[in-house]
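Summary: Need help interpreting a holo structure output

Steps to reproduce:
1. Submit the protein chain below together with the SMILES for zinc ion.
2. Request a joint structure prediction with the ligand placed.
3. Inspect the structure token block that comes back.

Expected: a single structure record containing both the chain and the bound molecule.
Actual: see attached output.

Input attached:
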Amino acid sequence: MSERIHLIEAGGRGGVFQHSIAVASALSNAGCKVILHTARDFEIYVPGINFCGCFRWGRVSGNRVVRQALTAARLVSKTLPHLARDIKPGEIVYVQGSFGLTPEVVRALRFARSTIVCSPHNTFARVGAPGASRALRTALTASDRVLVFSASDRERLEHCGVPVGLVPLVQWVPPVPDHLTEKWRAELAAKERPLALLPGQVRFDKNPDLFVRAMVLLHGWTGAVVGEDKGAAESVDRLIAETGARIETRYGYLDMENFAALVRAADVVVAPYEVASQSGVLSVAHILGVPTAATPAGGLVEQATVVANSFEPSALAEAIKVAHGRGKGERLETEVAARYLTEFAAATEISARR
Ligand SMILES: [Zn+2]
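--- attached output ---
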């Protein structure tokens, strides 16, 4: 394995950036030297990660064409030569291929003879589609390994002849002070009562009614619905009153720190959703070591600790009980680092044979 691991995430903000920070932080805590090449105006600073602000975006100009031209010109004249110069042959580079100039970046890395691991993120849906972007396909097939977050994506890309590895989708979760977790716990449930939590925006498509009906069946438990009301709060309150379910509600927006503390305070995090691809909430719970119970909807099946065998309240209640039996673990950073390092080692082997 090479000395340094480079991560490339050009945007410096949003979900893909938070994913990059989570991976960088896990690797750095596992003793790796990590450099994150990102936008100059990146949004979250984390000690221990070496940030290199080598991507510059023309965010200022009001004209889209001007912005794109400036960005592309800077990338070609400054960023690509910097990457080709700074990254040594054989060093591992994990590229978040979620922006338009990914093929150019991969070409520069190829030129630098580095080991290229690429995650196409939200653009991979297009790869398997008819008329898929040739440029992106070239970038993926030029990588030594492509990382995806679900079995269905792995299958789709394997059909295209791309070497694929499956890794857990992780997201940056800030360090949570114990007193904040304790505050949430004390506010929502008595110590001896297990707490099942439905966190995040309160919306109809998240199926909060099913959660309420499942809680009615769980004697000795306390439920909590905590998050910003996006239209479903009144109906949740009405159903709680009707059924007599033991559920606390707090409606309002939570910042990242409070959200993480809230999740950590729960014994089981519940995702009763009707439809879902991937759940950011389950990803946060996973990182914090809190077991999860979910309905058999889409990608939740792969993400949750325990999946209910139907959309019936009794099935969800059973899943919550079984998940509670799994117990709470530690933050899963060590496991995350190990999984990514295994994939990087596989990529190194492939690139050595090249
Ligand atoms: Zn850089």
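--- end attachment ---

Reviewer comment: The CA atoms of residues 19 and 170 lie 6 Å apart. The chain has a mean pLDDT of 88.
Status: needs-info
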